[in-house]
Amino acid sequence: MQNSLHDDNRYDVAIIGAGIGGLSAGSLLAQKGYRVIVIERHNVPGGYASNFTRNGFKFDVSLHSFDGVRPGSDSFKCIEDCGVADRVRFLPHRKLYRYVHDNDMDLSVKECDLAGYIKQLVDLFPGEQQNLDHLFSEAKRTHANVAGFMYSRLPFFLRLIATPFLFHRVLRYEDTTVYDFFSRFTKNEQLKKILAAQWTYYGLPPQKLAFPYFSYPFIDYLCNGGYSIEGGSQALSDALRGVIEENGGKVVLSSPVTKIFTDGKRVFGLSSRRTGEIAAERIISNISPYDLRSLIGEEHFPAKTSRALADAKSSISAFQIYLGLDCPMETFGVSADEAIEFRASPRDVPDQYAAMLRGEIENDNASWSLNYFSNIDPTMAPAGKSTLGIFTLLGSEGWFGLSKTEYRAKKQALTAHMIERAEKILPGLSKHIEVCEAGSPLTFPLIHLGRFTALSKMSISLD
Ligand SMILES: Cc1cc2nc3c(=O)[nH]c(=O)nc-3n(C[C@H](O)[C@H](O)[C@H](O)COP(=O)(O)OP(=O)(O)OC[C@H]3O[C@@H](n4cnc5c(N)ncnc54)[C@H](O)[C@@H]3O)c2cc1C
């Protein structure tokens, strides 16, 4: 890299990847006066937090429910800090979710009503009142400790020193899974399953998922609600981009980063397709660590991290169907306040998870969900029409290395199967489909880095 770069090509911080992580970091730094550049390989910003459009229907690539962004909450503070609180509208899910289990349980959880939720559970499981009170008190305290740790204004090293005193539940439950946490308070297996109704959001079953990680959205959803972003998550990504640019930063699209420059001790610049070589004091990487390693060169990459990458396995991925329908959801008897419907499999959750990893999700082997996107945000569909998502977790085994024809056939077969399944709940569904797209494990490649890190769906496993 040349040392004679013009000032236009020098930045305080270069951020690789304009996913929601890179854009948030960019917006925070640009507002603090740093000269920031965010570089993205795709032609739209947002990564998974983006939209695509087909025949007038708008589809959110990934987000089903954004947790807790109620004014006054810690999550909303985060949105304010990023400078986008008055640029996006968060639309509350009046019904947080509906949980239908084995045709013998149909539970509708209302927004921001923890007391009401506990009462519903006590009505179903008389005798568990005290256990549930204790469980939720402790879960709320853990949520507060995790929030305190995440949002503390203390510098990071002081935060670590303060953790045993100020946020000690983060350490107390460090080795506790969600299932183990619930088991401290109740022996009732069905109740534990219902408490973990949203487990598919996290990509790990409660028996593997770290409780401190789970406690934050668990309590945030129940106390502060679940939300859609008006116009889809693209609206949030575009707003973050606006904040960066208005504060003197740059967001460069269609520009894969191809090289990071280092002298072996520190990084000092990078090269990307549209920027050419640029100098940067700091680089933030918001991309896969495998890609980061090849950009920086194996010889400069920390050996410990390389060993962790060698041991990493694929995490569970997902299969999502995006449907544009020629009628409103009321046609199927779905009321306007329905946002998300979890259809729980009667099998034990670890068995379901194993079946999902193997790709054997037929015959009610695995839980899945219906997402009524345009019920919450009518701008996602043309007038009088609707958008619907059908979602399941799915392992990536068998999806890589296929020819184009094989891939298309596999995707079509699974799409047909899931629509058939949804049609049992929404009679006549297939006759109303105007647009049908599907995202497979090839679309959502996710990796699992053992205990503390996973990418994108960011769940922390205690494996
Ligand atoms: C199907 C699905 C459903 C989900 N549902 C929810 C939900 O309901 N609620 C929720 O909170 N979360 C949900 N998530 C998770 C959420 O979408 C992600 O955690 C989040 O969007 C990830 O953001 P990110 O910035 O970390 O990464 P990404 O979105 O992966 O961004 C990384 C960016 O880096 C870019 N990039 C990669 N390599 C390069 C390179 N060499 N040069 C330049 N750019 C590069 C990529 O193109 C991408 O834009 C869901 C995820 C999936 C897959």
Number of helices: 15
What is the first-to-last residue Cα distance?
42 Å
Give the helix proportion (percent range): 25-40%
* Cα Rg: 23 Å
How does the SSE layout of this entry go?
Blueprint: E1 10-16, H1 20-31, E2 36-39, E3 51-54, E4 57-60, E5 66-67, H2 74-81, E6 90-92, E7 95-101, E8 105-110, H3 114-124, H4 129-151, H5 156-166, H6 168-172, H7 178-185, H8 189-195, H9 211-224, E9 226-229, H10 233-246, E10 250-252, E11 257-262, E12 267-272, E13 276-285, H11 289-296, H12 303-311, E14 313-314, E15 317-325, E16 340-344, H13 349-358, E17 368-371, H14 373-376, E18 386-394, H15 404-425, E19 433-439, E20 447-449, E21 453-454
Helix pairs in contact: 1-10, 4-7, 4-9, 7-9
The site of flavin-adenine dinucleotide has 31 residues, from helix 1 and strand 15.
Could you explain the architecture of this structure?
The protein is an alpha+beta fold and 463 residues long. 36% of the residues lie in helices and 23% in strands. It contains 15 helices and 21 strands. The protein has a seven-stranded mixed beta sheet. The chain has a six-stranded mixed beta sheet with strand order 10-2-1-13-12-11. Strands 5-9-6 form a three-stranded antiparallel beta sheet. It is globular. The model is unreliable at 448-463 (pLDDT under 50). Residues 16-22, 39-42, 47-49, 62-66, 201, 256-257, 286-287, 291, 318, 320, 444, 456-458 line the site of flavin-adenine dinucleotide (FAD).
